[in-house]
Design goal:
The protein has 18 helices and 27 strands. The protein is α/β, with parallel strands linked by helices. It has a 7-stranded mixed beta sheet, with helices on both faces. It has a 6-stranded mixed beta sheet with strand order 10-9-8-11-12-26, sandwiched between helices. It has a 3-stranded mixed beta sheet with strand order 1-5-4. α4 packs antiparallel against α6, α5 crosses α6 and α6 runs parallel beside α7. The radius of gyration is 25 Å and the shape is globular.
């Protein structure tokens, strides 16, 4: 069967979808959360179309998933003002609550969140086209991240529960919250990467205004009641709508203390400039990347192909950690490309719930056309399409295209494609791919494939000064979440891991006194009578 016939058969009628994955009816979300109250919106709404097309007779149209509110500037300002009141200049109930008590709130949220797994996973598939196993994994990983964050905070608090005496000064050093945090996650991991900033921000005592990504809004709807019920009023507030309408006023108000944003560096720069006092705005940013893989002559080709295939095309290449440029030594380039194409041909494409599917429709509007433009530009400059059916398109689906050789004159050489196009270039001298990494505007990760100890050792030292993670014989990736996740240059600001995130959303603060009898007696009495939540030797088990 030809690729055209297979693509034609990919789109099915609603009745043929397994009942457990079917959307019975579109979601009419009119609620938004401000100050502990789920308010009802009667204004304009945004219709959400799925990347999944459904067949009705001879017509094929994108499925309508539902609608969500397009709030105005007024609602956005109400949300941030509610967060400001809840923080109370650091004197509110939430920021002054003992760490152990904040942990209880978050534990209850995680417990109730697990009850909504089926709904959230189903919406992940329908909204962003992620396969069922990957959607389930994103949900489960998020719950695990919450548990790990709680454990990390307990460990951090245990370390802080003692006093330090140095140079005649008694001190206790703990971490205190920063204020109001604006959390904005990405569409490719709309649940997980949003929660990797929001949960540590909350558990450290900050209050939050949360805006879902433009794609991946409705999947948060099942969690709105949980935010309302599990946290004090004003601690979590949600805003929906056009970024220019609601985010600009939030930042220009000067009421946001921390910007947690995952997206492009271009948008991050625009956001930061809107704050009236940018030197006071803490930023936690995950941005662009153009991670390279370097396949050395000594590489195990089967292993290199497997890891590069996963690294470049998992979730259709829509990951900031994806391998977006592959450098292969000239001696093995033809063999590598042949094996890569053969393995890619085995990957199944289809709808997210199809068993064994690995390639799915793309959620961004016009993304197949953008991929086709990048490929056409490379082909015009002398590159070749190297895999069978590469670039075949049907509605929102774009079949991966392997392009070789990709010269410096092409857009693919420098631009982050963020989709199912795999650019490959050969090299003779190792200086070529190293220079590529050095000259890149981005500095997140690199993958090295080889078995020559001397060569690998020689490459590690210069590369760790260009990127923040060097992967040996494995794909670029974020996890495990206990590892630091960050980048140099235009790739990141701040570091996210389970423990690093707790630090990035807080600041070291201490209470200090000269070491003499009066102060020792005062400190002892305060600790013994537990009159202070900060000055304490309580130990969380």
């Amino acid at each position: 069967m030809s690729i055209a016939e297979q693509l034609e058969q990919m789109w099915v009628s609603c009745e043929t979808i397994p009942a457990e994955h079917r959307l019975d009816q579109p979601i009419e979300q009119r609620e938004y959360l401000i100050n502990g109250e789920l308010r009802n919106w009667s204004g304009p709404m945004q219709t959400v179309l799925s990347p999944i097309y459904l067949r009705a007779g001879s017509e094929v149209q994108p499925a309508t998933i539902g609608r969500y509110p397009l709030l105005s500037r007024e609602e956005a300002l109400e949300a941030v003002q509610a967060a400001v009141r809840a923080y109370g200049q650091g004197q509110g109930y939430w920021p002054t609550l003992p760490v152990g008590e904040r942990i209880k709130y978050v534990e209850e949220f995680a417990r109730r969140m697990k009850e909504r797994r089926t709904e959230v996973v189903r919406l992940l598939m329908w909204e962003i086209g992620k396969s069922y196993p990957d959607s389930a994994k994103e949900f489960d990983r998020t719950v695990e991240y919450i548990r790990d964050t709680i454990d990390a905070l307990k460990e951090l608090d245990r370390t802080s529960s003692r006093f330090t005496v140095a140079q005649g000064i008694i001190g206790q050093i703990r971490r205190a919250p920063l204020g109001v945090v604006l959390c904005m996650g990405p569409y490719n991991y709309p649940l997980n990467e949003t929660f990797t900033t929001m949960i540590p921000a909350l558990i450290m005592g900050n209050t939050v205004v949360f805006k879902p990504p433009k794609i991946g809004v409705l999947l948060h709807q099942p969690l709105l009641e949980l935010f309302r019920d599990c946290f004090p009023p004003g601690v979590v507030n949600t805003v929906y709508g056009e970024g220019q309408v609601i985010i600009g006023p939030l930042l220009s108000s000067g009421l946001v203390d921390v910007l947690a944003f995952i997206g492009s560096c271009r948008v991050a720069d625009l956001l930061k400039k809107q704050h009236p006092q940018p030197h006071r705005l803490r930023s936690v940013l995950g941005m662009d990347a153009k991670n390279a893989a370097i396949v050395l002559p000594s590489a195990d080709l089967d292993l290199a192909v497997e890891e590069c295939l996963l690294g470049s095309l998992s979730f259709n290449g829509q990951r900031c950690t994806a391998i977006k440029m592959i450098w292969v030594h000239r001696l093995i380039a033809d063999d590598f490309i042949s094996r890569f194409g053969a393995q890619l041909d085995k990957w199944k494409f289809g709808l997210p719930w199809n068993e064994g599917v690995r390639l799915t429709p793309l959620p961004e509007a016009n993304k197949p056309q953008k991929m086709a433009e990048l490929v056409a530009d490379a082909l015009q400059d002398g590159a070749t399409l190297c895999n069978r059916d590469g670039g075949a398109t049907s509605n929102s689906y774009y079949h991966p295209a392997v392009i070789y050789p990709v010269s410096p004159a092409t857009r693919l050489y420098r631009e982050e494609q963020f989709g199912p196009v795999v650019p490959v270039q050969n090299f003779l001298e190792i200086d070529e791919p190293i220079r590529y990494v050095v000259d890149s505007s981005y500095g997140q990760q690199v993958s090295l494939f080889g078995s020559d100890v001397d060569m690998l050792a020689e490459l590690i030292d210069p590369l760790v000064n260009q990127v923040c993670r060097v992967n040996i014989n494995s794909q670029c990736q974020r996890g495990p979440d206990i590892f630091p996740f960050t980048g140099r240059k235009d790739s990141a600001e701040g570091t996210l891991s389970v423990s690093d995130a707790l630090r990035v959303f807080s600041i070291r603060t201490l209470v200090a006194a000269k070491d003499h009898e009066l102060n020792k007696r005062l400190i002892t009495d305060i600790v013994r009578t537990r009159q202070s939540n900060f000055l304490s030797t309580d130990f969380i088990l």
